[in-house]
């Protein structure tokens, strides 16, 4: 049986939950879908039962709202049925179909990884990735940890390492000091963020924060043992067990792009009501460009109201949401400038350094004169299960590739489900 | 309340908590070689959110991403370790 709803929301992070709650409050039948096994997306993860305070009120509203929530549901196909959308999802062994009048895409963002010799060693993981595992209960028992990459996310990651019993050797921030200082006006304009930063600063007391430094190479046999770092002039080698390294976030725009929504790899384009260039498809949150949880919450609510046909920018609530969105987006743009990637990072991979981790394609196998299609066809880079979600942004950064067209299925799906009869 | 359970990883019994991420349970138990890449390198979780597929292991015979897989009592897990 195919279930029919008024609004289907893809992604159960702050943006998606906020959209689902808003549409449901307007009396619509709503379905919220997420790949994970709990609501909250990338930010609100927690060990069983411990809901973070700031998430509590929204999650309570979601529980109370008449929203059908499907977890462990990867949306792998969406079809335009002239006036409605048909979504196909894989849920464990099952294949499920849902039709919806309107779609809200809230697929969030993923971490950007950059290749350097040794980055594929066990023990090297993303900064946000490490954060995810720490929030879910990874314990570190005094182990030596280096946090590296770029962006404000490195600070809460280092704090979590400390809380989990790890010893943070340093936080390496690739952006130089003079640009990091550009954070001051941002903090002054946002007292609540300044307070958070001060609290973080206290929990990180004694941890060296080193702007202008980055990782050059990771060493180890079966597991990470040491890391060589540099500021472009000096070099140091630090023994460590874990390296949590991430270079900001990349929007998960694939589903929207495949549906014909205008946008770039920096995010989907939307109008003031969060509607994409395709009629009936709305988008909200990190998927429209990286701007943090405040943007996700405001945009989600606007998208949910607009998808329900009741968005009114002139109402009191409308005013509040528009203002919150503008503020968060402007901060997002400032942070993007401050934490722009330095060109030296392009010079890190050696010919044997793996670029595509799924297909083990080394840097030296890619001809810099190739475009993304040729690279894919000649080397299989981007053809593995992650479908280029890791190496795609690397190829864009490293060789200036334009993103390739998106294939269906959007998500790696068991073959049996792809060829199954229509449910 | 933490709900402890036992799973079997490459034939050995491992204590875990029901509902927690299988990737965390494996890392805690000292498994750092989740899958072997096509050129034979050891790989372990990277993204923690279902994107990179480096955490793939077999659970009761099917490939899953360990970071998205909740632990249940009696899981039969095979890594490439
Ligand atoms: C790994 C990681 C860790 C982070 N940690 C922090 C932190 O500690 N503190 C902080 O302030 N910010 C953190 N951030 C940033 C934070 O994620 C964002 O600010 C905020 O969560 C954005 O909300 P969102 O709703 O737009 O997206 P998200 O929270 O990313 O939610 C998107 C959801 O969509 C789902 N999804 C995507 N595609 C599909 C599909 N095809 N089918 C089904 N479901 C799908 C995903 O499973 C996900 O749950 C982190 C980001 C990442 C990537
Ligand atoms: S750690 Fe990346 S998919 Fe599980």
Write the topology of this structure.
The complex is a heterodimer of chains A (423) and B (81).
Chain A: E1 3-10, H1 14-25, E2 30-33, H2 53-64, E3 67-70, E4 73-80, E5 85-91, E6 94-105, E7 109-111, E8 124-125, H3 127-135, E9 144-150, H4 154-163, E10 167-173, H5 177-180, H6 183-189, H7 191-203, E11 209-211, E12 214-220, E13 224-230, E14 235-239, E15 242-247, E16 249-251, H8 254-258, E17 263-264, E18 267-268, E19 281-283, H9 292-307, H10 316-338, E20 354-356, E21 361-362, H11 372-379, H12 391-399, H13 415-418
Chain B: E1 4-9, E2 12-17, H1 22-28, E3 35-36, E4 42-43, E5 56-59, E6 62-65, E7 76-78
Parallel strand pairs in B: 1-7
Antiparallel strand pairs in B: 1-2, 3-4, 5-6, 5-7
The complex binds flavin-adenine dinucleotide and FE2/S2 (inorganic) cluster.
User: Biggest sheet of chain A, in brief?
Assistant: 7 strands, mixed
**Residues in helix, % of chain B:** under 10%
- The overall strand count of chain B is 7
Total domain units of chain B: 1
Poorly predicted regions of chain A are: none
* Secondary structure tally, helices of chain A: 13
Question: Which percent band covers the strand fraction of chain A?
Answer: 15-25%
CATH superfamily of chain B: 2Fe-2S iron-sulphur cluster binding domain, sarcosine oxidase, alpha subunit, N-terminal domain
Strand count, sense and closure of the main sheet of chain B? 5 strands, mixed
- Name the shape of chain B in a single word: globular
DSSP strand count of chain A: 21
- The CATH architecture of the largest domain in chain A can be given as 3-Layer(bba) Sandwich
């Amino acid at each position: 049986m195919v279930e029919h709803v008024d609004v289907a929301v893809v992604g159960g992070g702050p943006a998606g939950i906020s959209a689902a709650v808003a549409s449901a409050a307007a009396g619509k039948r709503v379905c919220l879908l997420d790949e994970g096994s709990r609501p909250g997306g990338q930010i609100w993860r927690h060990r069983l039962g411990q809901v973070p305070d700031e998430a509590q009120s929204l999650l309570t509203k979601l529980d109370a709202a008449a929203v059908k929530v499907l977890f462990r549901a990867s949306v792998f196909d969406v079809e335009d049925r002239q006036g409605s959308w048909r979504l196909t999802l894989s849920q464990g062994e099952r294949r499920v179909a849902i039709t919806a009048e309107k779609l809200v895409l809230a697929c969030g963002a993923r971490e950007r990884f950059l290749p350097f010799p040794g980055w594929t060693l066990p023990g090297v993981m993303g900064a946000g990735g490490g954060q995810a595992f720490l929030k879910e209960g990874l314990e570190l028992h005094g182990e030596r940890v280096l946090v590296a990459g770029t962006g404000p996310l490195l600070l809460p990651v280092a704090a979590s390492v400390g809380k989990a019993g790890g010893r943070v050797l340093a936080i390496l921030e690739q952006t130089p000091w003079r640009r990091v200082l550009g954070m001051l006006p941002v903090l002054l304009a946002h007292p609540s963020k300044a307070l958070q930063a001060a609290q973080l600063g206290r929990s990180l007391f004694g941890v060296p924060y080193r702007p202008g430094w980055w990782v050059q190479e990771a060493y180890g046999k079966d597991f990470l043992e040491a890391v060589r770092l540099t500021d472009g002039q000096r070099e140091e080698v630090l023994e460590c067990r874990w390296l949590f390294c991430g270079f900001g976030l990349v929007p998960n725009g694939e589903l929207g792009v495949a549906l014909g929504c205008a946008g770039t790899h920096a995010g989907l384009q939307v109008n003031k009501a969060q509607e994409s260039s395709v009629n009936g498809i709305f988008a909200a949150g990190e998927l429209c460009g990286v701007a943090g949880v405040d943007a996700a919450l405001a945009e989600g609510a606007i998208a949910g109201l607009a998808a329900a046909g009741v968005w009114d920018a002139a109402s009191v609530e409308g005013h509040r949401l528009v203002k919150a969105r503008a503020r968060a987006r402007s901060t997002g743009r400032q942070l993007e400038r401050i934490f722009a990637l330095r060109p030296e990072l392009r010079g890190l991979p050696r010919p044997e350094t793996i670029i595509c981790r799924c297909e083990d394609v080394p840097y030296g196998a890619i001809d810099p004169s190739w475009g993304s299609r040729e690279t894919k066809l000649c080397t299989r880079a981007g053809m593995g299960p992650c479908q280029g979600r890791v190496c795609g942004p690397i190829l864009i950064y490293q060789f200036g590739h334009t993103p390739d067209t998106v294939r269906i299925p959007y998500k790696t799906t068991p073959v049996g489900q792809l060829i199954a009869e229509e449910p | 309340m933490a709900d402890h359970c036992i799973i079997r990883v490459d034939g050995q019994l491992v204590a875990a908590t029901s509902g927690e991420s299988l990737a965390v349970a494996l890392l805690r138990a000292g498994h750092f070689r989740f899958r072997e890449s096509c050129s034979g390198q050891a790989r372990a979780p990277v993204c923690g959110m279902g994107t990179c597929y480096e955490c793939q292991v077999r659970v009761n015979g099917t490939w899953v991403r360990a970071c998205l897989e909740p632990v249940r009592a009696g899981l039969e897990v095979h890594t490439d370790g």
